[in-house]
Design the sequence.
């Protein structure tokens, strides 16, 4: 990884009220996926941490442990601007109290965002419901960043450019 | 939280494919690298199949061609439930009804956002659903929708069936949709003689009726529904619009400005958030389009689409049947009643009036009827009335009124009139007469058309007319 992989713009973007979806795959090449909740970037930008719901993520958790590979897509509903980050060196841990607070802040910011777009708050809160004891922190080292905003540039590699 | 549903049937998940909440598709390359992307459109195909749009040769496409197994996450925007669909890529279709339907929907979205040259559907990727997993259960307190489509359809069908002519059929259809389906804003458009434009013959729920307005074939959701002969339903206008705008910004950044056309103004509601255009057909014949819209998101469901498509087909067959049943009255049957039954004076710039009758009631001030040959447009004093075939018909009527002194007419004489050169399509004449009748009722108080029997009508003129023709 180059130090410029995650630009200031990218770091700010992925920590906003973005939709997050996580994917991995099994040894027999079957993809697995789950919703992500909040993204934290380490001060040196070498590690990203995403939170997932254990029940929904059971296959993803098995696959990241077995295959050590992950893809995460981030999308701001307001603009549909999106990027995808792929990484390895994955580690798992239970979410602590600070993590849960971080996820709660993210969850409310995300729901506020989609309510502004016309979605119902009840819908948003229900769809983004979490149980604190079920949250798992999934950390990885980012290796590649891709432009994912729909259109002709989707899929292009990004260096230090802003999303 | 996770529950596996054994029997594969996704019919009850149709709301998930409304575009209200983006779906996410996960794939995996042969070297074991996952990829995940949000999708603009997932199409419900049948109980076991879905389709996605192939627009760009991206990583998702490379992956499914090499490894067909994928995972599709979908969300029901009404009750918040979420599902994982374990799917297997089967094939890509580049023609046929499904492709045309998806292409039309994509083209409709693109047209409204000026993205016609950027959003191009290259194919419909068909996937078989192998397994469905529930990841988020429906919100508590949300009751499943009542399945009442069949009683509603039966009710509406009876309302249409009671129509005796096209005028009634148009009104009854709009009333049925309004009262039975609770739809507030709608219009019926007829395909013109050349198959190039659709003109509005009846509307409901707008400040201005807009009758007589035209939309080119292939333009916007209405024009594309007509061209492709497939329903187009856009359920979450904001979301779809933003999707288009995001691509537009991206294309502009690449310098593709020249491919971005001017956005076409939405017909009807300026802030429309749900819209559906359904082709009106009778067998292989395209009659026109039934269009409905709403200020609400997700106003029209798959069930509504099913219902409107069936209503539109009944409308199409009835309109065709009415036009064919129109009696071909012999020329000798043409009434030649003198104008004495009417209460007006006809004067002309070029010729003296045949009869001069003092109006019993109303204004004696002559109304100037101006006719422009170039586009057959008609102006009453300074007010535009109509153009095209309906304008030519009106000019014919007022001229006959002046020269022959009669105000009773038959559809047949218009169809056979050499100077009108009407194509031999009966339902077009019917629709033009309804259009003319409605425009007169809306735009002026000096002339009215009244149906007096099957294939017959009267032109009632309440004020003197002064005719003037120009190139």
Sequence:
């Amino acid at each position: 990884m180059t130090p410029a992989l995650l630009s200031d713009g990218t770091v700010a973007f992925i920590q906003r009220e973005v939709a997050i979806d996580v994917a991995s795959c099994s040894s027999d090449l079957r993809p697995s996926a789950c919703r992500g909740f909040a993204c934290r970037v380490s001060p040196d930008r070498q590690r990203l941490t995403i939170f997932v719901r254990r029940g929904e993520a059971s296959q993803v958790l098995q696959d990241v442990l077995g295959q050590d590979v992950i893809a995460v897509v981030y999308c701001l509903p307001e603009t549909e601007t999106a990027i995808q980050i792929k990484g390895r060196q994955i580690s798992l841990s239970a979410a602590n109290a600070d993590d849960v607070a971080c996820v709660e802040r993210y969850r409310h910011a995300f729901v506020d965002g989609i309510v502004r777009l016309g979605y119902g708050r009840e819908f948003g809160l229900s769809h983004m419901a979490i149980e604190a004891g079920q949250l798992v922190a999934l950390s990885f080292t980012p290796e590649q960043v891709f432009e994912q905003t729909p259109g002709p540039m989707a899929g292009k590699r990004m260096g230090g450019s802003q999303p | 939280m996770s529950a596996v549903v054994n029997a594969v049937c996704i019919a009850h998940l149709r709301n998930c494919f409304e575009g209200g909440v983006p779906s996410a598709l996960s794939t995996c390359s042969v070297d074991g690298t996952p990829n995940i992307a949000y999708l603009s459109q997932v199409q419900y195909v049948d109980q076991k199949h879905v389709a996605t749009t192939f627009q760009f040769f991206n990583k998702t496409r490379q992956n499914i061609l090499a490894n067909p197994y994928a995972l599709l996450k979908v969300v029901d925007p009404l009750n918040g439930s979420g599902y994982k669909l374990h799917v297997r890529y089967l094939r890509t279709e580049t023609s046929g009804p499904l492709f045309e339907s998806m292409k039309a929907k994509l083209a409709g979205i693109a047209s409204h956002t000026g993205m016609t040259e950027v959003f191009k559907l290259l194919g419909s990727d068909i996937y078989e659903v192998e397994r469905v997993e529930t990841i988020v259960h429906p919100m508590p307190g949300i009751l499943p929708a009542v399945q009442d489509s069949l009683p509603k359809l039966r009710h509406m069908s009876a309302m249409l069936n009671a129509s005796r002519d096209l005028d009634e059929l148009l009104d009854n259809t709009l009333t049925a949709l309004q009262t039975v389906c609770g739809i507030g804003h709608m219009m019926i458009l007829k395909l013109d003689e050349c198959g190039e434009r659709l003109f509005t013959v009846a509307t409901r729920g707008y400040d201005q009726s807009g009758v007589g307005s035209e939309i080119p074939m292939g333009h916007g959701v209405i024009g594309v529904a007509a061209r492709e002969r497939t329903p187009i339903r856009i359920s979450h206008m904001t979301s779809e619009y933003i999707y288009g705008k995001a691509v537009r910004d991206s294309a502009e950044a690449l310098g593709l400005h020249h491919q971005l056309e001017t956005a076409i103004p939405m017909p009807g509601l300026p802030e429309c958030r749900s819209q559906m255009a359904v082709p009106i057909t009778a067998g292989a014949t395209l009659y026109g389009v039934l269009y409905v819209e709403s200020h609400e998101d997700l106003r029209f469901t798959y069930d509504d689409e099913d219902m409107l498509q069936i209503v539109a087909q009944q409308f199409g067959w009835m309109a065709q049947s009415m036009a064919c049943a129109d009696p071909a009255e012999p020329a000798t049957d043409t009434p030649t009643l003198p104008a004495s039954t009417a209460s007006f004076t006809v004067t002309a710039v070029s010729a003296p009036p045949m009869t001069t009758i003092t109006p019993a009631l109303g204004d004696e001030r002559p109304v100037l009827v101006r006719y422009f040959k170039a586009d057959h447009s008609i102006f009453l004093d300074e007010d535009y009335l109509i153009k095209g075939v309906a304008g030519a018909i009106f000019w014919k009527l007022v001229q006959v009124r002046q020269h022959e002194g009669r105000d009773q007419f038959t559809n047949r004489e218009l169809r056979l009139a050499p100077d009108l050169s009407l194509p031999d399509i009966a339902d077009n004449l019917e629709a033009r007469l309804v259009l003319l009748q409605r425009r007169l009722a809306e735009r002026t108080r000096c002339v009215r058309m009244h149906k007096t029997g099957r294939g017959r009508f009267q032109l009632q003129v309440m004020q003197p007319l002064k005719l003037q023709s120009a190139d």
Remarks:
- Residues 201 and 211 of chain B are 5 Å apart (CA to CA).
- Confidence is low (pLDDT under 50) at residues 238-248, 256-267, 328-360 of chain B.
